[in-house]
Amino acid sequence: MTQKHQLARTLSGRHINMIALGGTIGTGLFLGAGGSIQKAGPFGHML
């Protein structure tokens, strides 16, 4: 009575859209944080 369970390795259109949206938001946050650190310095960014 051995059964092999496998995960479904599929990506739907919704999954791809969410990955792209997350990448876009993450890039915007990363660049925004870089701009504020450049202006205020590392300590100013933490405030």
From TrEMBL:
Q: Where are the transmembrane segments?
A: 16-37
The Gene Ontology biological process terms listed for this entry are: amino acid transport; transmembrane transport
The places in or outside the cell where this protein is found are: Membrane
Q: Which InterPro entries match?
A: AA-permease/SLC12A_dom
Q: How does it sit in the membrane?
A: Multi-pass membrane protein
Amino acid permease/ SLC12A domain segment(s): 15-47
One GO cellular component this record assigns the protein to is: membrane
Keyword line: Amino-acid transport, Membrane, Transmembrane, Transmembrane helix, Transport
- Superkingdom of the organism of origin: Bacteria
Q: Show the Gene3D superfamilies listed in the entry.
A: Amino acid/polyamine transporter I (1.20.1740.10)
Q: What is this protein called?
A: Alanine glycine permease
